[in-house]
Amino acid sequence: MEKHCFKSKIWISIVALLVAMPIFVVAFSWLLPEHELWAYFSENILSALISSTLILLLGVGVGVTLLGTVLAYLVVMVEFPGRKWLEWALFLPFAIPAYVLAFVYLGVFDYSGYAQVWMREVLGLPGFDIRAGSWAIILTFVLVFYPYVYMMTRASFKRQKVSMIEAGKLLGASPIRVFFKISLPLARPAAAAGLLVTLMETLADFGVVSLFNYDTFTTAIYSAWGDFRSIEVAAQLASLLVLVAFFLIYFEKKARGQAKYYSADVTNKKPYQATGVMGWFITLFVFGVFMLSFAMPMLQLVIWGWSSVADEWSVKYIDLITSTSILTITAALITVALATVLALPGRCKQASNWLKSVIRLATLGYALPGSVMAVGLLYGINQVSLINIHFGGESINHVIYGSIALLLFAYVSRFMAIAYSSIEASAQQIKPVYTQSARLLGASRMRLVWQVYLPMMTPGILAGGLLVAVDVMKELPATYLLRPFGWDTLAIQVYELSAEGLYERAAVPALIMVIFGAMLMGVFQYLDKKSSKTS
Amino acid sequence: MSIKTLVSSTIVFSVLAGSATMNVQASSSVNSQDDSVTVYSSRKEHLIKPLFEAFTKDTGTKVEYLTGKGGALIERLKLEGANTKADMFMTVDAGNLWYAGSQDLFQSVQTETLKNNIPAHLRDPQGLWTGLSIRARTIVYSTDRVKPEELSTYADLATDKWKGKLCLRTSKKVYTKSLVSSLIYNHGKDKAADIVKGWVDNLAATPNAKDSHVMSAILSGQCDVGLVNTYYFGRLIEKNPTAPLKLFWANQDTTGVHVNVSGAGVTKHASNAKGATQLLEWLSSAKAQAIYGSLNKEYPANQNVASDDVVSAWGSFKQDDMNLSQAGILQADGVRLMQIQGYK
């Protein structure tokens, strides 16, 4: 027993500490303090940045939780017209990069956008600066990130016992009361997991905040690096983001509480039927969200792409699509495999605080802005080189820099959190009784893992894999810095064209990304249906 | 517990180091053997690829390139050190070029060809980098609501008569930073701070993310005047020739229009410095300069080359002849000044 624990501890530690390497590099930056720049920052800009960041996090947090949970509840518990396809359509915004969505929104709703021009010219209303204040950027983030909460709570509602809701109905509780008193508390862990991912994405975002010119903590990181050429202060500021992420994870665990929610009977029966006006009202609401978050931006991209596809399309796109696919699929497979190793239930893990801490460390990279993560990796490799040189070896920088391995490493470090949280949530659904009876029957750990754990964790593994794949496909800053020669991706093409103002042409690679993402989701849907049938 | 911790961390480290050493051995035989030139560039691919293809056609030398963001590529060059594959680093904004020079990433290249082709204020005094195209940042105005007689200097846009009528691009963009550096150079810090403060007070909207947004804001009536790089204006006019917008050359009676450059230098540890120098000289030549400018409606740095027809139609102007390394030297001061004055 002890021996087994020692072995598994070593393996899990190796995986987790490797994944957490950029976090260590960022933390070590405190060894090189720069007092002058810190004094300037704290005196002049930090307090404003912290409050604007908190406002953003609060607004986005409340928004995604409400929208994501309500949507998930509606599609799982209520039968309304169009429910079947909307349930899947609501995933589609995942495929659009946040900065592309923000771009389209500004194009439509900014002072010079169609919507405001129409408002002024047809309705005679006064125009306004949509980027002033924080409501517009909060709404944008909510529409970009609600699918995280939607995806996780949807899975959780699906596992809830219909009988409990029936009991609530029998006791005369209104549907709204049932939602707040029964369904929502049961979905709390899932909502908290989705919220956590959203908040970390928001903290690390640079694209959307740049387009709105909204200053967050990330702004200070880029200013330290870009304006004051201090990679050290940038890393120190980034380490504070990691600290925030650490607390968010802590609170998420708290929010889950001690309670464990085990999976229950799965049926496809909907407890509520919304018919007539009510049904159409719900349809209108859900469809409205789908329109705003997917259909409208898509329409804009198609209009742009249509006018420029002849200029922009070339054989180069075969390469772009190939490298994007290879990176996306490889990174998703590796991340999911490692996350599964970390998330597998086990007695050793239950008992070891050390293991719990290293695993937590491994999931913090998600809060680092992509370029900080990338530079952190470069510095980390450089340290290994220096150690190597110290012992009479050579620098390894030129071998590792620009290698595909390093880029994959960056993806794994950055996206471990989403794979892990989704897989771990499904691991928590496994009732201890399964493990106990398997043990009683004399099953080895190997068999337990293969025949009990993995099949039961499949929904989480699939969801985690999909999320990582879509995120890798959209990832820009780390890819831009670390990719090997000739490994341009679709996201890079979108960025290079749109940064130069060539939006019509940028729409072409953006559309290919959306199609690619939709295909990934199609595969996910197929596997998800298959696995829910067999379990 | 603590012993186990120690053991596991030791193992992690040795795995790291071990795999690293293996990698070195596996690849030490792969080294640059051909005579191609490798370029790291923050100038976007569609703007450099046609040039490199023309260079290869002329000279037979192949060019490999990797695009990326300026600051990130500089960091990568620094860490790659003597082992870098890059022979040339190409970027936009003199501040970036100056910084790469100050980090000892370039070697000095001062050939007669470069001196003849490119004016001195567009080159680094020590020959570390050479400007290859000029990007002029000047005033753009609505022809419906503003008369050109009302316009004069960058500083004038800070006066009360433009209250609620000015649109600016974000202070986070290098072109804004280098313009403010030039204000500090020309007027001193205090005056520059007053100008920036005046701009902020006159803003009609939150500073825009892009120059193109500044122009759409003017077209839609949100504001009347703004500051843009001329090639963004060029692209807009190409698409919409009747747009009621015009350029005004700022500071013609005083210091001249603020210009920035895109440029390049040969890296300090270039394995093919000869090829990179040849590429740099070729890029400064009349033939390349004509392509270089017209691809992006910029002004050629080589003064013997006429600009593209669209660009020439805007007329000639007096340039600010501040040596562009100043844009780099003063950049951090400029940023502090803008952050303190609340220019977002």
Question: How would you portray this structure in words?
Answer:
The complex is a heterodimer of chains A (535) and B (344). Chain A has helices at residues 2-19, 21-28, 35-44, 46-77, 83-89, 98-109, 114-121, 135-159, 162-170, 175-204, 207-212, 217-227, 231-256, 276-312, 316-343, 347-351, 353-362, 370-390, 397-400, 404-428, 432-440, 445-474, 477-482, 490-499, 503-534, and strands at 78-79, 272-273. By secondary structure, chain A is mainly alpha-helical. Chain A starts with a helix and ends with a helix. Chain B is built from 14 helices and nine strands. In chain B, helix 6 crosses helix 7 (189-202). The longest helix of chain B is centred in the first third of the chain and has 26 residues, at 2-27. Chain B starts with a helix and ends with a helix. Chains A and B meet through helix 1, helix 11, helix 12, helix 18 and helix 19 of A and helix 1, helix 2, strand 2, helix 3 and helix 8 of B.
